[in-house]
């Protein structure tokens, strides 16, 4: 059977999706699903891992942070590598590494080896995520086809995250090793299917060599930034170590910009960031994921530590948000076609702000249906609108040979935003931790963190609203170029 991408009648121009095209999308969705599944499953299993392997709290923290470090630190390199070496090749190799690292993580009997396996998994995800997203954006034509594909693709992340919470509660009852091993067979099935279904992609032919200095400096700066943010709550935000690390990050980023401006084949073409729409997408991604990660962290502590809920009970409490995202997956693409990404992102952030604010009402004896469920439904609706729209906005109008780069940049914004804002929320809660830890005092120490989470979402909303205002201004200028009579009678639409 001929690949649908090997002829002029590529799926990007097709009016209807073929079974092969659906298969391609499902393979890519499986990788995204696994990334989210892996992140959410580990958190619930940490106490069992610590008990079995005799790990300290700081060592347990690195089981999570190791993944974030590999993922967030290497995304820029992963995205550009996909453009230069071929998206299909990079995706499949990284997916194979992910499967092997999952197998290793479930079999090791050493804390350092488990942390190493987590770093390798994060590293492989840093290559599968931008490669997978760029395969979609180069396979489906910009417009309704791509919007639908991206809405389904990004929904798999939310579904994987929600299912991971539930599965981890069930699997950890048997053994924490099952939470590590579960992704391995799924990744292998996706790898075999990908070998058959993924369209073959050529390496970028017209590039001006490999930006080795940019790759080294950019990767080093991202690794150091994520490492510094992850460690700051433990060593102190005002400590000499943290301040010197941030100073080193600033120096590396300055050198990186200078290198990229002079490079004939840059890791990131800085001209992409001259687009207001692109900048809003990147900042919106940071605010969106950063606020949600901080919210989930606090709510998990609240439910398990203060309310005494089990891991499974807590996972089921979050489930309505994920279920709402999954149910709406096939509808978001058509909504984007009708209203545009800016309006949907703004509406989604508004729902997030209300959902987070409503959660401030919680007490030590909440009625789930009246106090917690409304927030979960609002946040689920917000995720359904915002995440696909951000992906669409970031990749629209970008040439095919730069889709991997932009995809890597967007995923970097997501991961760095999550790491930074989670660290900030953790620092705020820790600073307000009571000396006499009565349940009410602990709950009161969580509220400033929830206020910070709400504020991050408000910042995301304000950033998005600037895009709506800019668009109205641009349309007013276009209308004004017609006759003065038309300028008075033609309404301006955003």
UniProtKB/TrEMBL annotation:
It holds the Pfam family MFS_1. The chain crosses the membrane at residues 21-47, 59-78, 90-108, 120-140, 152-172, 178-198, 210-230, 242-260, 281-303, 309-332, 344-362, 368-387, 408-429, 449-468. Keywords: Antibiotic resistance, Cell membrane, Membrane, Transmembrane, Transmembrane helix, Transport. Its main location: membrane. InterPro entries: MFS (IPR011701), MFS_dom (IPR020846), MFS_trans_sf (IPR036259), Sugar_transporter_CS (IPR005829). The keyword Protease does not apply. Residues 24-472 form the Major facilitator superfamily (MFS) profile domain. It is found in: Cell membrane. It is a multi-pass membrane protein. This is MFS transporter. It comes from Streptomyces longisporus.
